[in-house]
Amino acid sequence: MLVVGCSTSEIIGQRIGTAGTDEVAEMVFRQLRELQGKIGVQLAFQCCEHLNRAIVVERETAEQKQLDEVTVIPVRNAGGAMAAYAYKNLEDAVVVEFIKAEAGIDIGDTLIGMQMKHVAVPVRVKQKSIGHAHVTLAKTRPKLIGGARAVYEQTKENESC
């Protein structure tokens, strides 16, 4: 699952949450759907802080991942233009409170970390912005747990006592 946090306001050079537009949301949505078609990822769109950063997904995704639906309809002024656009244009969209995505795209510093699996690590890319918005990509990896004797790569030397 790929979580997308997107401030359309930031893309057009305005402060987050002040100038969201459907036109920008449509452009971003169209590109993400194209990516989805190429790699088969499930898309999840983060709402703004006014909806506690809830997530818009297709009902099929919510059912597959056993996510609990919440009752709210994202709109531009409560949810954000991107989440509102996704809600209207995904197939049978629902809103869920939490997810644990394997990857994420944060467009405009929307703080997607709470929707990512542990441990999130940055993905370095050449494109650092979309319009005026700062872009951060992340992926996740399993936690490294243990202590002084913990081993993270299997070799012949660490297979025996």
UniProtKB/TrEMBL annotation:
<comment type="similarity">
    <text>Belongs to the UPF0340 family.</text>
</comment>
<dbReference type="InterPro" id="IPR006340">
    <property type="entry name" value="DUF436"/>
</dbReference>
<dbReference type="Pfam" id="PF04260">
    <property type="entry name" value="DUF436"/>
</dbReference>
<dbReference type="InterPro" id="IPR028345">
    <property type="entry name" value="Antibiotic_NAT-like"/>
</dbReference>
<protein>
    <recommendedName>
        <fullName>UPF0340 protein JCM21738_3678</fullName>
    </recommendedName>
</protein>
